[in-house]
Amino acid sequence: MHHIIKSTLSMSPVIPVLTIDKVKNVEYLFEALICGNLKVVEITLRTSCALKVIEIASKKFPSLKVGAGTVISDEDLNSVKDAGATFAVSPGFTLPLATYAIEIDFPYLPGISNASDIMNLIYLGYKFFKFFPAQATGGIEYLQSLNGPFPEIMFCPTGGINQENASKWLSQKNVICVGGSWIIPEQMNDYKEIQKRALLASRLAS
Question: How many CB atoms lie under 10 A from the CB of residue 92?
Fold first, then answer.
């Protein structure tokens, strides 16, 4: 389970975080991201059609690793697994949810914001975490301070990351990739712009 998370997060320096509110033409969005050389996406469960979108992405685009975001319960975890997601992501974590992911052997990236969170999850065997909300929680300086007590732990910072500061985050030795919503413009159907932004993101130095 944990090796799948590691190999998945290693595939792209940036994971676009997508909140999609309609199914129509969603294939064009995934095609633009793939043409932009991004291989991993996170689709949040914040909309009523999210599970359907996860299903479309995982069935029609087998080269794409589809993460399901905002997973906060066992029910969510079962739903995204059934929809075909490759892995699940949470903004935080509960010990029951983190334990359940291990029980059903489903790749899971729990969210953390402090050392106690990390210690609780290390106890269960976790080594990869979403650091959220990254900028608001203390930014790069805070993440650097976690490297001392937790040298083996790797993070995917999300929240406040953009094209301008992403390379600085990616240069940290305990960062495996970053998550961000900047790749998708407000006009989600501007596929040329999405492809352009994806290409720029895919070239960010790790």
Answer: 13
150 DSSP assignment: -
Burial of 196 (0-12, 13-18, 19+ CB in 10 A): middle
How far is residue 127's CA from residue 119's CA, in Å, rounded to a whole number? Answer: 10
CATH architecture, range 2-199:
Alpha-Beta Barrel (3.20)
The SS3 call for residue 125 is: coil
Q: Per DSSP, what are the bridge partners of residue 108? A: 88
Which residue in the list 42, 55, 65, 81 is annotated as catalytic? 42
**Which residue has tokens 């961000």?**
180
Residue-wise pLDDT tens digits, 95-122? 999 999 999 999 999 999 999 999 999 9
For 21-67, the pLDDT digits (tens) are: 999 999 999 999 999 999 999 999 999 999 999 999 999 999 999 99
Q: How many angstroms separate the CA atoms of 95 and 117, rounded?
A: 10
Q: Is 60 a catalytic residue?
A: no
Q: What is the pTM of this model?
A: 0.96
Instruction: Assess whether 42 carries a catalytic annotation.
Output: yes
Q: Which of 22, 127, 130, 141 is catalytic?
A: 130
Helix (H) or strand (E) holding 42: strand 40-44
Side chain identity at residue 52, one-letter code = K
Q: 105: helix, coil or strand?
A: coil
